Amino acid sequence: MIEIENLIKVYRRGTIEVIAIRDISLRIENGEFVMLIGPSGSGKTTFLHLLGGIDRPTAGKIIVNGKNIAMMNDKELTEYRKREVGMVFQFFNLVPTLNALENVMLPMQFAGLGVTERKKRAKELLEKVGMLSREKHYPDEMSGGEQQRVAIAVALANDPSLILADEPTGELDTETGLKIIELFKELNDDGKTVIIATHDMRLLKYASRVLKIEDGKIHEWNEKEKYLNGK
After folding, report:
1. 10-63 pLDDT tens trace
2. pTM surpassing 0.85?
3. Strand extents, DSSP E, the chain
4. Eight-state DSSP code of residue 104
5. Could you give all domains of the chain from N- to C-terminal order, each with its CATH number?
6. H/E element, 122
7. 3 close to 66: Cβ distance less than 8 angstroms
């Protein structure tokens, strides 16, 4: 479970303060599929980075499975990101000099798994995302959809309970984007908590909950059924 209390994030640019997240409090239960919507610049990416331990809040609590990550030191945050969070970025973030198999094995190496176990699990994950036949290919030899599938396998490498995705279909064609959406749904069905920041309204029919962020404030978006019914 994720419990967020009075979360604030302020960026300072010289003498100017930019409030990216404004006093957010909410709870996300284990196993939810949360769709986070809102205009560009509204704070979606900042919010995901705070949940993922990539960025630190200015104030407030982020309690994930009983641990307040806002109070963790750098070493503890590294372990949190390594063990408990899978982050999927819009622009894939694959290592260009590693092939698909090596990219998926990399987080497991950081986690201390032996090479045999790393290779076995990486192959299983590539098979899960439909990319085992491309295991020896490098990122520049793959399409955008293929790279995104490998990026999802990378995010799953250490079997995290929380999957965070930032505009995962933003650079993909319609058909490939739909396959990626269905893959996230499968991960959610497997028990993962999934939070996706997106403009892609096709996710609506899969999401168990929709949150809207505007000017750094989050509220429940209750227009799902109306939108799906075309009203």
Report:
1. 998 888 999 999 999 999 999 999 999 999 888 999 999 999 999 999 999 999
2. yes
3. 2-13, 16-28, 33-37, 59-64, 67-68, 85-88, 162-166, 193-197, 209-214, 217-220
4. H
5. 2-228 (3.40.50.300)
6. helix 115-128
7. no
